[in-house]
Amino acid sequence: MNVYTPILVLGAIAAGFAVVSVGIALVIGPRRFNRAKLEAYECGIEPARQPMGAARFPVKFYLTAMLFIVFDIEIVFLYPWAVSFGQLGMFALVEMLLFMATVFVAYAYVWRRGGLEWD
């Protein structure tokens, strides 16, 4: 357990920072709507025309987010593999090529379906 203590402390600090940041924003943040808050923001959806519960995000936003997560996970696996590549041998090379091929098949699928094209 002593080995994991720094990791647990770091996790507790991160969670505490997140909770305190959100709490402070709720307490001291502005609550009045103005013209700037009612204008279209990054995704282009105009909040003034849609009721609060009826707004639906286009599927392309979720596809982009999932693609980002998939490539982040690929990088998380790729770094340790690259560091210890010398000790792993040919089997690890073949396994990583299969893993990367799987990721790029998913990327090609999203690209072919038009998930990366914005209107």
What does this structure look like?
It is a single chain. By secondary structure, the protein is an all-alpha fold. It has a single domain (3-113), classed as NADH:ubiquinone/plastoquinone oxidoreductase, chain 3 (Methane Monooxygenase Hydroxylase, Chain G, domain 1, Up-down Bundle), CATH 1.20.58. The protein has helices spanning 5-28, 59-83, 85-88, 90-112. Helix 2 runs antiparallel to helix 4 (90-112). The longest helix has 25 residues, at 59-83. It starts with a helix and ends in a 7-residue tail after the last helix. The relative contact order is 0.07. The model has no long low-confidence stretch (mean pLDDT 81). It catalyses: a quinone + NADH + 5 H(+)(in) = a quinol + NAD(+) + 4 H(+)(out). This is NADH-quinone oxidoreductase subunit A. It is a multi-pass membrane protein.
Keywords:
119 residues, mainly alpha, Methane Monooxygenase Hydroxylase, Chain G, domain 1, 4 helices
Quick structural summary:
It is a multi-pass membrane protein. This protein has helices spanning 5-28, 59-83, 85-88, 90-112. With 119 residues, the chain is mainly alpha-helical.
